[in-house]
Automatic annotation (TrEMBL):
Belongs to the Skp family. PANTHER family: CHAPERONE PROTEIN SKP. It holds the Pfam family OmpH. It comes from Aureibaculum flavum. Keywords: Coiled coil, Signal. Residues 194-234 are annotated as: Disordered. The keyword Signal applies. Residues 58-104 form a coiled coil. This is OmpH family outer membrane protein.
Amino acid sequence: MIRKLIFILTLFVTTVLVAQKPQKIAYIDMQYILDNVPEYVDAESRLKAKVITWQQKLDAIKSDVEALKTDLSNEKALLTDDLIGEKEEDIEIRELDLKNLQAAYFGPNGDMFFLRQQLVKPVQDQIFNAVQEIALAKKYDIVFDKSSDLVMLYSNGQYDISELVLNKIVKGRKIKEIAEKKVERTEAQEAAVDKAKTKAEERKTKNDALREKIRLQNEAKAQKRQESIKAKEEARKKRLEFIAKQKEDRAAAIKQKQDTTKTGQ
């Protein structure tokens, strides 16, 4: 009732203002816009699934209470007053639990209210911001919501800016997606550069290790060659020394023989 009074008052003020200067008025169909925003449809689907879960819990408790009432009704004639009082008290406690849980789920400040705020409000904020931007750009003085409780007795389609709002949201989403994809590409490029750099460093490390291994092998081979040459030189030297010694021994033997011969003569 209060909202209708506000609407009537707004129309009255608008009428007075129109008499003073031309006014630009537009309207939107909020429900139409929401139904065409994927985020809102997804949020509503998630909210409905949660509501079904909550309702199932409430129905289970309600069934338990009805079962307790049925059992009490069937057994009442056989029970004492004290037992009847205890069972009735148990039923009242369960009914109170049911009432409190129902309020916790669906009350003015219940889980459903806060979940709707969490899921739906971001989409509503998008719409509100889009309406604000369009109203400022098109210089609309008033923008109504056709799907609200406020009564619009007549609306001319040429003043419906719902599609403009939708396009604004879609454009904003595309810009956001482009920006996100740009960030993703940049991150992917940076990751690719880092990966390439890491691979290059790994290749360099492997090449350095391979070169060091080859160097050590070459040094080992060179050392073996040197040792082999030295061993051959020493063996050759020993052979020469042996040959020279044999020559000396033969020469000494010949000389001794000659000296012996001369002495005998």
